[in-house]
């Protein structure tokens, strides 16, 4: 079967699919670099329930750059499809790695989690809350670099104004979100990252539900335990890790540490961020390409509303 060519890229291997479309390994035909191509149906992009989230994700994701964030390299569209070119993270996602290893030892968890918290600290300093931090949204490269991805629910904070939208994934959701209270998105991210850390070590979530229980029972029990803070910190781990988990999974958001404070926690003793300042400078070319794509998608959305598309 002939390999499909998209602009200057050749799709080489199917990787995965989801509600958004499909992801393919691709090769830049000039440089030979291997990348990832997200292929999204244009009609879906223009749907009311998807459109604003998609444009928000593109706009914010294109303007951030960090070694532990999956980087957008290129974007374009044709008459029926939107294409987004990313770095290739060919080591799977963190959920795959945790499940395959039946939980990580502290040294490996520390390696990945420091990178994750470095990325979270970076976006929080920019006033951005991710709002969907989970194992599946951390990709891993073959050289063991963690990359935070999927910024579809991220939001730029508006000063000290709380966020109101209930979003994210239930088992990672902070109590204040489940209670449908106005919340600090950064503090909610810390809770979700704490659940990620717990699951990395234990290979399961802190919430226990009856085996073979119907979905509504599982949801009810999970919500009850989250709101009550029923978290049993596992035995057999260091005091420093126990302390970090306890602090991050405090039901009072004001008592949770910031991402920057977590990077200074004793569990990470001897580990420091070593990031080249140039690696944090957003790519003006990518920003320009994304801005042009957003303008074109907005035009097509308006044409669809008018019924002229």
Automatic annotation (TrEMBL):
Keywords associated with the record: ATP-binding, Kinase, Nucleotide-binding, Serine/threonine-protein kinase, Transferase
Pfam families reported for this sequence: Pkinase
List of catalytic residues: 132 (proton acceptor)
InterPro entries xref list: Aur-like, Kinase-like_dom_sf, Prot_kinase_dom, Ser/Thr_kinase_AS
Protein's UniProt keywords contain Heme: no
GO MF annotations in UniProt: ATP binding; protein serine/threonine kinase activity
Protein kinase domain span: 9-268
Superkingdom assignment: Eukaryota
Residues engaged in binding ATP: 38, 136-137, 150
Glycyl lysine isopeptide (Lys-Gly) (interchain with G-Cter in SUMO2) cross-link, renumbered residues: 134
SUPFAM superfamilies the UniProt entry points to: Protein kinase-like (PK-like)
Gene3D superfamilies registered for this protein in UniProt: Transferase(Phosphotransferase) domain 1 (1.10.510.10)
The keyword Zinc belongs to this UniProt entry's keyword annotation: no
Descriptive protein name: CAMK family protein kinase
Originating species: Tritrichomonas foetus
